[in-house]
């Protein structure tokens, strides 16, 4: 078992360009997994040494020191000190430091070198440092640190061969991994002073930092212009999600319709064909249509993150977030939650304060995630007239926007209440390094989008496909006796379950169709759309299923107050197995996910009820 | 002692950290502050203050820009550098 490829860990401060170096070394040959229990993503990949030997490279989360203050820093500490139960002791480490930020990054490098394992230092982003007027002598640095130092520019793939060369040498000379050593207990301030002295020695010449970054920050962080810029960016982002996606979404839709038609004309009519076309293809297709929107949203988020702007946005939002007891840091996961709460909740692991993090996780499902759009689009399209309200503003768009705002307002109130009750605690701080501005790398963005697309398609292909098929079966059996006149849906197993749920939701204006859709929608919200479609398809076998037919049927069977209550329900209801599962993993137990489900269902029930009663009272 | 602190120090003027009230900070805050390079004798400059009224500040330390809340900045005492 010692025949496994040597393990090399990539370690460094946040913002040292570690992930870019990892992407440059491994290219697309990388695997993204999870460290059990903590949901810290584990990025690993294989690279070949100079002599052709394979090496497993693992990209550890960025950390400031061996004294962890967040779950991902803990993973890094555990792995490099050999305490991790999920990772072998690395045979060597590549310590990545930002050339332009040496005095800070060297402190962590010194701690890592002191662990006594073979180390190669990658002096990364030397090009940016030089542009910044900073010239360094790697030889001096190597002499002072006592380990090889390789200047690299990860984004331009410079220095990679040299890095491989040094790594080959380090691994060749390496004794088997040393037994676990206790981390050296040198106080931070001593280390810091040593780091500063070494950095000073390695600097050949230095001129003041560049002007343009200051100029950018003067705009982005301006007390008045900054927030305006942020709001405009968010506006453009949401606008783009809805306008750019139409063409590819229509193409996907047409593709599924064509596939359905092809099967219909080539397979014999019957139970199996109906299951595949009405159940599987219609259900999964209704969800995959939203892939372009999700990718556009993630594109914006990835660009904002990798350009360095996201932390500026957090800076601007800190004051507002502080009013509900959160910090600007929570803004980043909450913004991601507009695409999907799952990566949003995972992104909370960078929040150090436990209470702060928990509150953010609990309110993240209130952000209008992309799974709600199919539901909103269908119901609004069918039930709300698209009359102009103001110039450029139509009623349908206004209702959509209103639902988004209600979600944010709900999250605001929830955070306010939670921070004073269940997640009570001292107000957490906000202390963050602002990364340098840089052009986002197309390769890194592409890798990010690709992995999100895969996750989404996997979800559509597994959870959503399975739920749709199960619902279809439950709706189809048992068949009502011939000539009894009973609707097949009412007679089926699902119909009977639906009647049970209907008793509970009738007071808030929900009908049988909604009751039937709520249960499968627990798997994922968007299933509600295909579920209602399936109900009508089975109920009315002669009509063709499809968006138009579906919205026509809705108009005939739903009242406006019912539709509004249904929309309001979806603003709050925690109908998503993946979110519940990721909350369980992130909080290490069932207590918080159950609490989240409970409070959100209660809110959904009350808010939908109020909406229904108000709508009925004003005579809608 | 009418020493200036980082929370109120004028923008874009060089200063040295004279003392830091470590005891006024929560231990994790103090540690993170050290990790970001704050220490007695280090040069800093206030770059930006967020929204009027109590938002965080951004300051330059070494070649880094760091965001801090004002409460933390208030425990970092600084002395102006001539020029």
From TrEMBL, chain A:
GO terms for molecular function: ferrous iron transmembrane transporter activity; GTP binding. One of its GO terms (cellular component) is plasma membrane. Keywords: Membrane, Transmembrane, Transmembrane helix. Pfam families: FeoB_C, FeoB_N, Gate. This is Ferrous iron transport protein B. Coiled coil: none annotated. Gene3D superfamilies: P-loop containing nucleotide triphosphate hydrolases. It comes from the Bacteria. PROSITE patterns: G_FEOB. Residues 5-173 form the FeoB-type G domain. InterPro entries: Fe2_transport_prot_B_C, FeoB_GTPase, G_FEOB_dom, Gate_dom, GTP-bd, P-loop_NTPase. The chain crosses the membrane at residues 224-247, 280-304, 324-346, 396-418, 456-475, 563-582, 594-615.
Automatic annotation (TrEMBL), chain B:
Keywords: Iron. GO terms for molecular function: transition metal ion binding. InterPro entries: Fe-transptr_FeoA-like (IPR007167), FeoA_core_dom (IPR038157), Transcriptional_repressor_C (IPR008988). The keyword Thylakoid does not apply. Pfam families: FeoA (PF04023). Residues 5-80 form the Ferrous iron transporter FeoA-like domain. This is Ferrous iron transport protein A. It comes from the Bacteria. The keyword Protein biosynthesis does not apply.
